[in-house]
Amino acid sequence: MIISKEKMEAGIEIDLTGPNGNAFYLLGMTKALCKQLDKNFDDISTRMASGDYENLIQIFEKEFGDIVTLYR
Questions:
Q1: What was the pLDDT predicted at 10?
Q2: pTM
Q3: What's residue 67's pLDDT?
Q4: Which of 3, 12, 71 is nearest to 36 (CA)?
Q5: Residue-wise DSSP of 32-53
Q6: How far is it, in rounded angstroms, from Cα 52 to Cα 34?
Q7: Rounded distance, CA 54 to CA 39, Å?
Q8: How many angstroms separate the Cα of 45 from the Cα of each of 36, 40, 72?
Q9: Which of 56, 57, 40 is nearest to 48 (CA)?
Q10: CA atoms within 13 A on the CB side of 11
Q11: What pLDDT, in 10s, does the model give residues 25-58?
């Protein structure tokens, strides 16, 4: 998954009630964003997977909330 610079600057929106709201999609997005932003994927994904779905969302928002807007 490659996220264009333009899309990142405009902001990414994810509807958590839709098909992109599942944990696997969010982890895939995390991997792509970490690669592009030079963040440590192993650390972030481990923290995301250490709890339930709400924990996963909270960590995702903490790490990428300035780029990605999550809708419930």
A1: 81
A2: 0.92
A3: 93
A4: 3
A5: HHHHHHT--HHHHHHHHHTS-H
A6: 21
A7: 22
A8: 15, 9, 21
A9: 56
A10: 7
A11: 999 999 999 999 999 999 999 999 999 999 999 9
